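quick one before i forget lol
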Amino acid sequence: MRVLLRLAAVVIGATLVNAQNSTTGNTTDCANYDMDISNSNIDAVLSCIKNNPDPPIPYYLYILRSYQGALAVPSIVTASQIDYEDSAGLLNLTSLDLPDLEQIVATGFFIYGAAKLSELNAPKLRTIRGSLTLNLVGGPAINLSFPSLEVVESGIYLNGTIDRYELRFLQTDTAKRFSIELPALNSTSAVQIFSTGKLDCNAFAASVVNATPAYNAEDGIGSNTSVICNSKKGNVTTFRPSIVASSRGSKMVSNLLLWSVVVGCLSLVA
């Protein structure tokens, strides 16, 4: 009897949730890991994530173009992708807070056309298997702080009014300028920054180039354009030079060393 009552309560609860969502024209299925987020279903989405923060298939968060205002998504630790885009630049998201997110395990983190976004917070984000692509052209001043981000496998691509970079976030700095903070970055395939601001590209490129693969033209490893930075203060295209000899060079050195040993032995015999 107790089991039947519990099952009935679950069914009634699910019916109420779906009924509540259906009044707004949306139905949120917690078994569906592709989460379309709108103002009308955000409470149901957050409830799903809170009750199941680490599902077998990571959540894909797609913020609908119609979303307006601030958005905070706590509890989620792993996502397959986060996506919010509109080529017309008419998106009305003003802030995005992902306080518990630690990794994105599929295609990446994408924001396009968010001309009203003034705050982006992901303090625990460590790994992005895909790319970090943020196009914030025309938007307000913003601090892009990724204090824990270590690996972005498919590259970092940022576009906006970027005036400076920060190796450490200055808590006392209240200036409303667009800045980038990547203090923990140690591995990414490429970094491309296109700024309409006064970013010091020489300093920024020097701060991130060692996180990119070393370039070895002979062995086809890396790229000689792995870091690109364009701004009003100048343009920089650079790469991390290889400090390891190529396989052909290594073989030649090995042969020379072997020949030296042979000659030395013959000299001793003579």
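fyi Residues 34-262 form one domain.
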